[in-house]
Amino acid sequence: MSAAPVILTGHAGVGEVVEGEALVSPDGFSARYDLDRVTGRISRESHALFGASLAGKVLVCPLAKGGFATSWALLDLRSRGLAPVAMLFTWANPVMVQGAVLAGIALMDQLVPDPMEVITTGDRVRVDPKAGRVEVIVRAR
Amino acid sequence: MRLAREEEAIRAGQWGQPARHALEMQMAVGEFFGAREMVPVTSAHLTGDPESMGDAGLGFVEDLVRQGARFVVPTTTNARNVDFDRYRELGQPEEVAAKERRLRDLVVAMGGIALDSCTNYQAICQPRFGERLAWGDTGTVIYANAVAGARSNFEGGPASYAAALTGRVPAYGMHLPEHRWGTHLVEVRDQPRTASDWGALGVLVGRQLTNYWLVPVFTGLEAEPSGDALKQLGATLASYGSLAMFHIVGVTPEARSREDAFGGRAPRGRIVVEPGALDRTYRGFVPERDTADLVVFGTPHLSLFEVRELAGRLQGRRVHPKTVLLLTTNHHVKAMADRLGYTAVIEDAGGRILAGPCYYIMTPRELARRHGFRTIVTDSAKLANIIPASGYNAIFRPTAECVEAAVTGRVSA
Asked: B385 touching A, CB under 8 A?
């Protein structure tokens, strides 16, 4: 366990303060291209997180991919308890942000340092979008 | 974000609750991306179908109608889950068709037009230079931006409804010149010949530039691209790279010269498309088996020229009894194809031409279960990119090879 707290900062995101367990994806994410929206699991066989559920996680991801389906999917996933609680991207795109706003899911991007570099799967993370701040509270063992 | 007087009125609820909520969502998105103001748009193209919206999304639209929402700009609908006249014979669920009917009625009740097409720009709403739009389907957006010089971000599902209700969008991204300028130079040394070759070019570039904020600038292209070629290039770049803009020097309106395309800045990177690269792109899609269960044309919706070409290739031939051939287009092209006899040729060969739907939203998992589909052969790189999420082995091939696959029932590596 590292002693120094890991804090990431950036521009204000959308959504409320949340905590959750990080799920880090080396691949980009689209709810159309990668997800079975019925089960909330990654269904693209070539995706690094194939088979994983996003429910309740803080998804950490380099890129938002794809088109409009994602903008609806987040609300639908949330209504069925299958949505991530927050999403941290290196680069978000408009449809991902529009979907997060509709669904009320926290989303931030362009954080420093890049969450892809400093967050690992299983870390417990606190996301404060309005303050533009993310903190790793407990490191994964 | 600075609001104009009319926007303050919307925010105060003077246009009703739906427009107020729409503006609040738009402001949240706009502030995320650093927008300083809203700008009026001339049209909205709605994206949303029951398959991608889910019951929660349908509920959102039900609420709008219940609250008396009205669209304030011309508003059209994108491709659907079903062709209402043909879904039963394909074995699509009745429930999805019922939801589509309901959604269509809700959109029409708010003043929308049930266009049901992802190629609105080819026949109905030609974008013009500098026009600001709120379009949702990514293929329509990149075409409007790149080919016409109009201005739109990806206004996805709820954002397209929001823009239709407020008549404006937050001005960030593709509304600002600095985000439209090129970032990467693409030197093409393998000339695309057919529309699907332009799709292959889109695959090559879209796999490397996977970020909404990147803009490729193509040079070295010798052929004059057709509208269908530009449609395939754009839809593929949007699909693989989530890109909303490209330039072709000497062809697209914001790229009269290389300097023009880059806004006077230096390229951040360079991609070279070497001879043979397009063919290798097709061959990178490797069939697990050599049987073609399904052959699909029409992502994005086929133009009349494309339907005519396919009819010509299928004339006097017969689709293999174990292979299903589907063409998807919009109502207006279908009506023309009926009149001109193309539909009869395609249906006589054993194919089906559907009006309104697009395969990747046609309940593809359900159809795979029902018909045992696994291998899908298509000349649409976009479809080949999307459909694996629904459990398919997708094989992208040139149009002529796809027709051969339909007729022989086989696809080769």
From this structure: yes
